[in-house]
């Protein structure tokens, strides 16, 4: 479905906030621009370009990190990395097995053009939602990304590193630190060799094939769609001022059908605009969640979370509008083979009343 969680980002887009570039300021103040150029961080939006494609992957995994254990397990599999937004985002899918161990991972990597940093958002089977993002950048061809996570009941620092060795080989590692970064214990090593005869992962035998029926609620959304949006500029005012946005949406299954990736291109009053949404099903909660990101912002929104009932989908999230906390509700309805409708509404009174923010009508272009 188009524009899940785009309402607030689109509001900024229409006001022009997302299109105020450093160049725009430099024209007004060339002296300030010269000073900025001396300290501006390196643009790393193509840091992952070496990683696109399919890779034979040998993984070494430490089973019990930060316990003194030296017990490792060896796995073999495949990693496929797909380019999005001409390299400013990508999706990495991984499947490997060894002995009784099988691992399936997904990582949505997105570039923040303002911070000149990447965020790596991982998901694991059985959870159905993205975890804490690792954030970092590439320096001298090596990417390092950090976050803090709970491991064995304690919060530790996590570091993920990745780098090319040659055009056809690369390596990545994960390490933990429980002393504030003074020392690191490597617990996962991946060695990649480029594949020339395989472009996709064989998901047969995957746990995704045993998902409950609710995991198929969004199957109607697969394919390519034309979308026509009526966007109300300020849902909380008495004004009825609105604008029209037209675009194309392409939705495909990823991660063996456990998730969907939606890519959006649209034309608005400020020009061309790109975004994407990752849909994931939580088999434990029997709920869907979706994370939206605008290519100009480079930061994932709070996910909308909810479910379908009698052919109607309703997902909710906390967010802000004009610096005030609100609830956001997305509703899918009128679902047919070649069309459906999406309406997003905002509430500033705890859900007692809802104000329509935009209405989207989608018509199928092709399956």
Largest beta-sheet details: 10 strands, antiparallel, barrel
SS strand fraction: over 45%
N- to C-terminal distance: 14 Å
Helix content: under 10%
- Counted by DSSP, the helix tally is 3
SSE-based structural type: mainly beta
What does this structure look like?
The protein is mostly beta strands. The protein folds into two domains: 175 residues, Lipocalin (Beta Barrel); 144 residues, Beta Barrel (Lipocalin). 7% of the residues lie in helices and 54% in strands. The chain has three helices and 20 strands. The strands form two sheets. The chain has a ten-stranded antiparallel barrel with strand order 1-2-3-4-5-6-7-8-9-10. Strands 11-12-13-14-15-16-17-18-19-20 form a ten-stranded antiparallel beta barrel. Helix 2 packs across helix 3. The longest helix is centred in the N-terminal third of the chain and has 10 residues. The N terminus is likely disordered.
